[in-house]
Amino acid sequence: MADLDGVRTDLERFNEEIEREQYEHLSGQKEDIDTESIYARYSRIFEDEGLIMDVRNRRATARGEERVRMEYLYGFLLGGYAGRKITRVDDRLHMMQAKAEIEVDGKKVSFHSVPAMLANEPDHGKRETIDLAREPVFDGLNPLFRERLDISYAVAEQFGYDDYISMCSDLKGIDYYALREQMQNFLYRTDRLYTRYFRNMCKNVLDLSLSDVRKFDIGYLFRVKEFDRFFAADRMMGVMGGTLEGMGLQLSDQPNIKVDAEIREKKRPRAFCSGIRVPDEVVLCIRPQGGMDDYRALFHEMGHAQHFGNVSPSIPFEYRYLGDVGLSETYAFLFEHLTGNKYWLSQQFEMTDEELFDVGQFGAFKLLFMVRRYAAKLLYELDLHGGEADPEKLYARHLGDALKFRHPESEYLYDLDMGLYCADYLRAWMFETQLRGVLSEEFGSEWWNARGAGEYLRGLWGTGQKFTCDSMARNLGFYGIDEHPLIKEIEKRLRY
Ligand SMILES: [Zn+2]
Questions:
Q1: Residue 62 C-alpha to ligand 1 middle, in angstroms?
Q2: Which residue among 55, 160, 265, 460 is least enclosed by CB atoms within 10 Å?
Q3: How many A from CA of 444 to the centre of ligand 1?
Q4: What residues have CB less than 8 Å from 388, skipping those under 6 apart?
Q5: What pLDDT digit, counting tens, does each position of 256-274 carry?
């Protein structure tokens, strides 16, 4: 039998190295990314089928906390084994995308800058030209995406699973088919509200009728430049600090949470959080640009940072690093939610009642859009991994049905996160609404102004990811993760 304490120590070191590599690459301090050689250094863990089977066997007989720890460890080891198999193709995909260029109006621009270009281009025809120019990039990437998928499917088969879905289900303890039913209910219940609101926005913002809207228009639709004047870049950190202080959480008292706001040319524009050593070294990386989306991203990542940074250092490795990622996403959404909350907004910015209403309603619509998009992704990904024929067409159909505009078949693998990550987000959106309900009941509707709320959250964060979203929901007095509070809230906020 393997020495599991040694394995845990190694895994903690591995996590540190991989997180640091990603952080240094994405923050623009290191041009290349080389996860391949980090995985190779830990091959004794990630290439050892015997170790994985040993933990799987122990999981079968363990009880209580020991069982939970074995479950998380098994999930991480098998996930890492699958991850090890795809590092080479993954690194190539990263590199190809980072180096890819497209030609627009005779000028070369990077593939990575296309979403920002599309979001800032007011002309539908020009957006179409830009989008068409990147088709060859997708054609070049798709065989590698396909290869990555096939490798992952082979791992599922090797470990005796019926398919990739049942492997993910066993690793994460999620019943994807039950979740699909909840999401079908969500899509059905919000369909009319979404269609009405979306049609109006397309007419008002894009000057397009529903049938003319394409995926490349959506960035511009959500860009809403007119809100930028409130969300100034130079106020971002101040607003963040003030909000945390309201909850009794001072960044100055949290030296383990480092904020990297330095300007570097190659720094990724979008905020991200790296839990390099949980809870001792957590980095929140940002490149403040201002605008509603940038604020939203900063608050989201601060939710992760507060979670990781407040994990109790004495709890076992499994609870600090492994477990249900949906729980960390829940805390991230909790913070992100504030940026669309009209009471919070009125506290931070000089806005008229009408402006507050508009920004608040826009935030609610964006949430509805995102949940419907991820619900459709879940439906599609379950079909894809289930081996249904013509996945390109299924992608276009599921996403098109839910969002009411056409999706290009060529993006069917580009618009896909491995490990059914869409499900983690969906669970987090539902559970966040439930958790926020508890905070409002305990500390008032402006819970972020109550020091008690910070205390309360710190208590939850201290347990790391020991509990899954489901067990946390039960701890808070719910039957489980429920889509109805989310539906109710969106209906309420979009009523007019
Ligand atoms: Zn997140």
A1: 31
A2: 265
A3: 26
A4: 394
A5: 999 999 888 878 878 899 9
Ligand 1 centroid from CA 176, angstroms:
20
Ligand 1 centroid – CA 429 distance (Å): 11
Residue 341: CB atoms within 10 A of its CB come to: 21
Label residue 496 by pLDDT band (50, 70, 90).
Answer: low
d(CA 464, CA 314): 11
Domain range 176-494, CATH class: mainly alpha
- At residue 36, the pLDDT reads 84
- Write out pLDDT tens, residues 107-144: 999 898 898 899 999 999 999 999 999 999 999 999 99
Q: How far is the CA of 306 from the centre of ligand 1 (A)?
A: 12
How many residues are listed for the chain in this entry? 496
How far is 18 from 41, CA to CA, in rounded Å? Answer: 11
- Ligand 1 centroid distance, CA of 271 (Å): 10
Q: What's the CA-to-centroid distance between 329 and ligand 1, angstroms?
A: 5
| pTM (two decimals) | 0.95
Q: Which two tokens stand for residue 382?
A: 């379950």
